[in-house]
Write a structure and sequence with these properties.
Order of helices and strands: HHHHHHHEEHHHHHHHHHHHHH
Pfam families: Na_Ala_symp
Main location: membrane
CATH class: Mainly Alpha
CATH architecture: Up-down Bundle
Subcellular location: Cell membrane
InterPro entries: Na/Ala_symport
Protein name: Alanine:cation symporter family protein
Strand content: under 5%
Strand order of the largest sheet: 1-2
Distance between the termini: 55 Å
Radius of gyration: 22 Å
Shape: globular
Length: about 500
């Protein structure tokens, strides 16, 4: 009862009706709620996930025989392979575009800057390392997401961690818990965060009122998501490659303009990664700051192991017709997000020297905007504002697809449930553009931490299935055939997966 009153009090306060609750009750219970949320975030993001995600990445890298390195070319082949059309799924390229739409957001522009600001240049080295190991994790979770997929009431493919947790591990209660955490964080609150970043950047660069930006972004997001996952996939497949190309192209131009400074920049990254460069806290202090901020940046950016991307991987019609092919597609997504796009931001900032200036007190997107302005002039501020508009907007529509999959698992994906989710997302975008309520965002971080922890445990427990699928795929490929999933080779899965989906064709 007390917990319910606490939650009710918090909701009233956030909505502007805090006067209904007595001051003594509000203060006491809000302090308790903040303490609980703070404890969970410290537990998840300072201990379990920072080390757990890295450990799981190393585990799958070793168990799958360094698959992300030896099969790197296969990742590109399966993305552009001739599409199998069955009317139930989206193409591998569309699935990659939607996953990148969700991954490539505010974190790629502002988050990298924060990592540099707090951890120094060495944070980039650990960000790279996290991504390289994370490719194996992304391969594993997306392979499982594809294997355990099913169809919804409209005959469209749906799936994700909730499905392989509930069916593969026979733990439906954990699947429901995972789904609720995903809907709260990715379906609602994080979209408010993205909208807040868009509104702030547009206000800073063009003096556009926050409410006006929120209204326009909410309207545009509504037009896309009310068209369903297929419409999201079409928009993402068009916007994501274009925006990423121009952003990376600009950074390549900057790189060429500063080519003589590149060797020193690379030296700075490596030395700082191990605390061998000057550091305020000494060698160990510099090493710790660089490692923790780099690992966190990589983790937030590419989402490998978080349990989000498998939701869209499950919606694809794989080509070749084998679960492992979608694993390769989403492993490539980690590479493109972190090794390419995040690195582009880091290079631009490092070559500008902005974050190293004595007494500079810059944070997040301000660092990125000033760094680009140092290279190309005042137009840099406007370019970053436009870039973050597209990056964050595609994150909003990409996040929606994950939440709809979660609705399918808990049995609320009928017309009413889906419409409520879409309406809630649009409202959160408009609301989030105008204000920042840190408590709500912290609560979403806690729910995402719970979600990621459940997913990591699940994919490790199901790693034997991932290994068997991988060996099967590579064997067929070595024999010169087009890998195809044959349910007859997996009798242990017949009562756990949707056999109708995977009937050999």
């Amino acid at each position: 009862m007390m917990a319910s009153l606490c939650i009710f009090s918090m909701v009233l306060s956030l909505c502007g009706f805090g006067w209904i609750v007595t001051e003594e009750f509000r203060c006491g219970e809000m302090i308790m709620i903040d303490a609980v949320i703070g404890f969970l975030n410290t537990l998840f993001w300072s201990y379990i996930l920072v080390y757990g995600l890295l450990a799981v990445g190393v585990f799958f890298t070793l168990r799958l025989g360094f698959i992300q390195f030896f099969q790197f070319g296969e990742m590109f082949r399966v993305v552009f392979a001739a599409r199998r059309k069955d009317g139930a799924g989206i193409s591998p390229f569309q699935a990659l575009s939607v996953s990148l739409a969700s991954r490539v957001g505010v974190g790629n522009l502002a988050g990298v800057a924060v990592a540099l600001h707090l951890g120094g240049a060495g944070a980039i080295f650990w960000m790279w390392l996290m991504a390289l190991f994370g490719m194996a994790t992304a391969y594993a979770e997306s392979t499982l997401g594809q294997l355990y997929k099913t169809t919804n009431h409209d005959g469209r493919y749906r799936g994700g961690p909730a499905f392989y947790i509930g069916r593969g591990l026979k733990a439906p209660w954990a699947g429901v818990l995972f789904s609720l955490a995903l809907i709260l964080s990715f379906g609602l609150v994080f979209n408010a965060v993205q909208a807040n970043a868009i509104a702030g950047a547009m206000n800073f660069a063009f003096d556009v009122p926050l409410w006006a930006t929120g209204l326009v972004v909410a309207a545009c997001a509504g037009v896309v998501i009310f068209g369903g996952i297929r419409q999201v996939a079409k928009v993402a497949a068009l916007v994501v490659p274009v925006m990423s190309f121009f952003y990376v192209l600009l950074v390549l131009v900057i790189l060429v303009m500063n080519i003589t400074a590149v060797p020193d920049m690379l030296k700075l990254i490596v030395l700082s990664a191990f605390g061998l460069q000057e550091a305020a806290g000494g060698i160990m202090g510099g090493l710790t700051a660089a490692m923790l901020n780099g690992v966190k940046r990589g983790m937030f950016s590419n989402e490998a192991g978080m349990g989000s991307v498998p939701n869209i991987a499950a919606c694809a019609t794989p080509s070749p017709h084998h679960p492992a092919s979608q694993g390769f597609v989403q492993a490539l997504g980690v590479f493109l997000d972190t090794i390419v796009i995040c690195t582009a931001t880091a290079v631009m900032i490092l070559l500008s020297g902005i974050f190293l200036e004595p007494g500079a007190d810059l944070k997040g997107i301000e660092i990125t905007q000033m760094a680009l302005a140092a290279h190309v002039g005042a137009i840099g501020n406007y370019f970053v504002a436009v870039a973050i508009l597209f990056f964050a907007f595609t994150s909003i529509i990409g996040n929606y697809t994950y939440a709809e999959n979660a609705l399918t698992y808990i049995g609320c994906a009928g017309r009413t449930g889906v419409m409520l989710l879409r309406a809630g997302l649009v409202l959160m975008v408009f609301w989030g553009a105008q204000q920042t309520v840190q408590r709500v965002f912290d609560a979403a971080d806690a729910s995402m931490g719970l979600m990621a922890t459940i997913n990591l445990v699940a994919i490790v427990l199901l790693s034997g299935t991932v290994v068997k699928l991988t060996r099967d795929y590579l064997r067929q490929k070595k024999e010169g055939g087009d890998p195809c999933f044959d349910l007859g080779d997996y009798p242990e899965l017949e009562d756990r997966i949707d056999t109708e989906v995977w009937t050999k064709r």
